[in-house]
Design brief:
The complex is a heterodimer of chains A (218) and B (245). With 218 residues, chain A is of the alpha/beta class. Chain A has 9 helices and 5 strands. In chain A, helix 6 crosses helix 7. In chain B, the strands form 3 sheets. In chain B, strands 1-2-6-10-7 form a 5-stranded antiparallel sheet, sandwiched between helices. In chain B, helix 1 crosses helix 5.
């Protein structure tokens, strides 16, 4: 079976076809990780690009995510059984005092689409809550979101706390939300900022690939 | 200082699917693959919404080129507000909400990993919140006209050139707890699906509200997903001059 077909089903948001293809592929003995890495994730990558270029809007992205989710219902239990775990884990949430978590939910959904294991903490998280979750889930990526200028400094608090606990070097910290800029991200010592979910996920993926390449070179 | 305090506890609302699509950015296109989720979300939001509003009319004491004094101790320091308030006799302080149950349901869906459903429900809740606020604005405009006065454009903290910390002015002068809304230190309103604003009214008001116009063109939140028309630029004077014509 040609996994490009599955990729296209995800891109086109063909939920039923994506699920049937996955079921059939598994029945034919295809590896779940192969279906995930070479069929579903490339589909979501294309969706991210289309979202970024404004060819797709949120509903199209949601439909593609739905197609992937339906396929994952069949893949996830098999991955768990074979103890194949996603290589990268991300913790996502809004900083303390910030209640608006829809943007970060979108990032979480897209990170899942990119093959990450994602723990979505939701809204209003303290620095210690974020860092405990990072430790507990052995995560490599922390995504912080803030909607307002009144809550944005909570991001700096998380980064400062990570330095204080001497864990900053163990993680990449990304920031996002309406008042965040590149300049702010640099000033507080974050690892990156992008103005929308799709470009943020692309940046995180690229950073992780570079990081893994550097590690293997060492 | 409470002169004319009103609560509206029964606000009719309707949810048009096309409004939800628009909030999600499809520009009116229907994405049929999400129809089940949308129908489900609309049904739930209908059940969970409890729209209410509270408002109060307060005399405007003084308007300078940079400030609006709406009580002896309350001053809005904002040039855009000062221009919009030219000729105003009173300010209406308004907060409307659709209640806390939708926030809870959205959080629950997200925590259960149902992000798609959470995002759609958030969009539906936004539509109801927006429609509730607009319904009250329309009501206030008819009341104002029936007094022989004019109503101006609503200033919303966090939008329309007014810093989000402006929320405290509204919350200091309005007993918003009566409709179950509170202001957090971070200027977030809880429930989240709430809106606040200050509206100038008066018989000699210069700049009047056009009900068909959105406030997006005066709002600097460039990346706001709910934007329905572009920001009109960064030059206050140009915008104000345009509105005065």
């Amino acid at each position: 079976m040609d996994l490009n077909e599955l990729t296209n089903y995800v891109v086109e948001g063909k939920v039923v076809q994506a699920e049937s293809f996955t079921v059939e592929a598994l029945a034919e003995g295809m590896e779940p990780s192969d279906i995930l890495n070479n069929g579903l994730i490339p589909g979501m990558d294309i969706v991210g690009d289309k979202f970024q270029s404004r060819e797709y809007f949120m509903p199209e992205m949601l439909v593609s995510a739905k197609a992937m989710k339906q396929a994952m219902i069949h893949i996830k239990p098999l991955l768990a059984k074979s103890k194949e775990k996603a290589e990268l884990t991300a913790i996502c949430g809004t900083v303390v005092g910030d209640l608006h978590d829809i943007g970060v939910s979108l990032v979480a959904m897209m990170l899942e689409g990119a093959g990450f294991e994602v723990v979505l903490l939701g809204s209003d998280n303290t620095a210690d809550e974020f860092l405990s979750a990072m430790e507990k889930h052995e995560a490599q990526v922390l995504c912080l979101s803030a909607l307002l200028t009144t809550t944005i400094n909570g991001m700096a608090t998380v980064i400062d706390r990570a330095k204080e606990l001497e864990v900053r070097g163990k993680m990449k910290i990304y920031v996002g939300g309406a008042p965040v800029t590149d300049q702010f991200s640099d000033e507080i010592g974050a690892d990156g900022f992008k103005p929308d979910a799709a470009s943020a996920v692309k940046m995180i993926k690229e950073d992780m690939i570079t990081l893994q390449k550097n590690k293997s070179d060492d | 200082m409470i002169n004319n305090l009103y609560e509206i506890i029964e606000i009719p609302f309707d949810i048009e699917e096309e409004d939800v699509w628009e909030v999600m950015g499809t520009k009116g296109r229907v994405v049929s693959e999400l129809q089940n989720e949308l129908t489900q979300a609309i049904n739930e939001v209908r059940e969970l919404s409890a729209p209410r509003a509270i408002y109060n009319n307060i005399p405007v004491e003084k308007i300078t080129s940079k400030e609006v004094h709406i009580s002896s101790s309350t001053v809005i320091q904002n040039k855009f507000a000062a221009h919009l308030f030219q000729g105003a006799r009173e300010a209406i302080l308004l907060v409307a909400t659709i209640g806390p149950r939708i926030d809870r349901r959205i959080s629950q869906l997200a925590k259960e990993g149902n992000n798609i459903e959470a995002i759609i429900m958030d969009a539906v809740g936004t539509v109801v919140s927006f429609n509730t606020f607009t319904y009250v604005l329309d009501l206030l405009q008819s009341d104002t006209i029936s007094r022989g006065w004019k109503m101006g454009t609503c200033l919303n903290p966090g939008q329309t050139y007014w810093d989000i910390t402006g929320q405290s002015i509204i919350f200091d002068l309005l007993p918003v707890k009566r409709i179950g809304v509170k202001l957090l230190e971070t200027s977030f309103m809880k429930p989240q699906k709430s809106q606040s604003g200050i509206i100038p009214i008066g018989n000699a008001l210069i700049i009047t509200r056009d009900p068909s116009e959105s406030s997006c063109k005066y709002c600097q939140a460039i990346r706001c997903p709910l934007r329905i028309e572009p920001f009109n630029g960064f030059n206050n004077n140009e915008i104000i001059a345009e509105r005065m014509h």
